[in-house]
Amino acid sequence: MRTATARAHPNIALVKYWGKADEELILPVAGSMSMTLDAFATTTTVTLDPEADEDSFVLNGSPATGTALARTTRFLDHVRELAGSRERAHVDSMNEAPTAAGLASSASGFAALALAASRAFGLALDERALSRLARRGSGSACRSVVDRYAVWHAGTDDETSYAEQIDAPDLRLVIVTVDGAQKAVSSREGMRRTAATSPFYDAWITSTARTLEEMVRACAAGDPTRIGEITESHALRMHAVIASSEPPVRYLAPASVAVFDTAAALRAQGVFAHTTADAGPNVCVLTTPADAERVAEAVSAHGSVRIVGPGPGAHLVD
Ligand code: DP6
């Protein structure tokens, strides 16, 4: 029986990915940059089953059906194609983050699945090939393959669109869970709507490419303040372009906005605090190891908080 187990963590983008140039290959309209977290792991075991006619998928102890199963099967089809195999597989996945609560569990999920499935099917992919494979499951998953900080090069085709590690100063994220509820519009659907209807979409694409270049320079210079400033403005630009869609989409809740304000007030007192948020109401405040406790205490009025730092990329476990 061929089996493999892998573990991966979510990542939080400091330069956001929002919009696809190719839906089938999941090529983004612009590159992005993220921190892989040291918390909320997904651990996935893939076991090949020569007897089975269908793939099966158990998530957190319950058999998955519908879209979740279909997405897993479609992903395994990519792995089968690479491996030249027709065998079906059983996937068993445990996710330590609340699913769809805005902690990008699809990123840790597909990064862990890419590694476990590629090994179970007998493939030994290098980091770039693994990142490209994970991208086919969920765009942001290509960044969770990488340790600590990652840049996802947008690329122009399957070969050139992958994430790789980038050096950056040691920072922390204070994750504020303001609402654990399932988000109303998935990122996939939200991206489509923004692309199809926002009058600001072209400006978002061209400015994101420039922002990423600036972020890469700030990382190379080891300039945490500039990294923080870019992080917050880029997050707000993403939420602005999303809000300009029709029908409109708004992911931030009043408590999320309150965290942005609290971080601004902390900055006025000399504390390192810059806010970002993905496609949901939860927010993350980027800070330094020295200021993390102070930030966590200040924002705890708006939700439950957890301090996380840079963590490992996808890896095999026994
Ligand atoms: C707001 O990677 O979940 O978190 O490629 O359609 O699976 P798909 O989308 P996904 O989108 C993540 C969007 C984001 C920003 C980011 O992580 O860069």
UniProtKB/TrEMBL annotation:
Signal peptide: none
InterPro entries in UniProt: GHMP_kinase_C_sf, Mev_decarb, Mev_diP_decarb, MVD-like_N, Mvd1_C, Ribosomal_Su5_D2-typ_SF, Ribsml_uS5_D2-typ_fold_subgr
Pfam families: MDD_C, MVD-like_N
Residue ranges occupied by any Diphosphomevalonate decarboxylase-like N-terminal domain in the UniProt entry: 8-163
Sequence intervals crossing the membrane: none
Domain Mvd1 C-terminal: 174-301
Superkingdom of origin organism: Bacteria
Top-level EC class: lyase
Single GO molecular function: diphosphomevalonate decarboxylase activity
Database matches in Gene3D superfamilies: 3.30.230.10, GHMP kinase, C-terminal domain
EC number: 4.1.1.33
UniProt keywords, alphabetically: ATP-binding, Lipid biosynthesis, Lipid metabolism, Lyase, Nucleotide-binding
NCBIfam families, per database record: mevDPdecarb (TIGR01240)
Family the entry assigns: Belongs to the diphosphomevalonate decarboxylase family.
Stored PANTHER family: DIPHOSPHOMEVALONATE DECARBOXYLASE
Protein name from the UniProt record: diphosphomevalonate decarboxylase
Species the sequence originates in: Brachybacterium kimchii
Gene that produces this protein: mvaD
